[in-house]
Give the backbone structure.
Amino acid sequence: MPGYRVAKLSAVRGLLRSLSAASGNQRSHGYFSWAFGSAQMAEKSGEGPPTPFSCRIRPVPVLTRRFSSEVSASEQINLIKQLRERTSAPIKAVKSALVDCNWDIDAAQKDLRKRGVVLASKKSSRAAAEGLLAIAQSDRKAVVIELNCETDFVARNDIFQSLATSLARMALSGENSDHQTTAFPFGSEYFENKKVCLDHPKLNGEMTIQSAITEVAAMVGENVKFRRGFALSTSSHGVVCSYLHTSPQPGLGRIAGLVTLEIEDGNTVLDPLHQVGASLAMHIVAAKPLFLSRELVSSEAIESERDILKSQAESSGKSQMAVEKMVEGRLRKYFEEVVLMEQKFVVNDSLTIKSVLSNLSKEVGSEVKIGTFLRMEVGEGIQKLEASAAPEVGARAG
């Protein structure tokens, strides 16, 4: 019996010494299962006489999780903050990338970009009906583009806004924006293989437009796409004026109105034209005209409206002569609603747009006329397009 106790005590002492040795040899850069290492050392030590109770401890696999102790908790928080500021990526994705890259912020940034490109391609089929219009303008030409995203939250993002502004400026410098007497439309194919120079702290330098859109989509976590654009120009004796509604900053908004004013006398001072043109652009946004003049209203549109008005008038039960008078009266009202020259001026409803131009012509001493106009709104036609797969609805241009 005493021999048994001595043997048992010797085995316990050997195990304790091996545990102490294992603790001293533990690595400093991570937490490990010291039980696994000490068990192996106790097995090798072989201390104590062989007795029935001095059994060997077999190694058991232990699942361990490594955490870097080289980067303190405060440093980790700081790295997460820095990477968030660099990329605008969600905090969860930022932390995951840093952990995977052993808290190397540059490697984590590259990893996030790779993940973002993959996610952006997956989200490219999702509906994007929100966004912004961006206008870039010079003395006699202007370009408006529509950049879409999924939510108005992203539309308020400064990176998204910077991209929209850069696309409009790039389109303004293009060849197709010159010498256009009407609203010249262009789509995404116009930007193929073209580069844009971005100037934003989180995204700068020259890159292809598609790459820039993909990068921004990766940063904001939504589908981002260029939808359409229009370019307007006037002659050397004219001006281009614009107005943006719901504008978060100059050159950006949700609804745009543009108009070109042309004058016969090339020596006329253009300041009055700029002032009136700005008011006309605002009027276009508010009044939503479809045609410049009555002569430009298609016969199909007139007949369609006439049939609708006739059906409404006949339901009143009045005579045929009375019905005809009702139809003609309502048709005049229709022209006043959809024809720009016959609309009442929103700034002064005692005047029509035709009267406004007549007064302006008298003021400058030369005839002033509207060359073309354009009204454009973010997301118009997108829901109809998704429901019916019909061709995309263009902007209303006169």
In short: Residues 2-24 form the longest helix (23 residues). The chain has three domains: 1-69, 73-123, 130-297+339-397. Confidence is low (pLDDT under 50) at residues 25-47, 51-55, 60-69, 384-397.
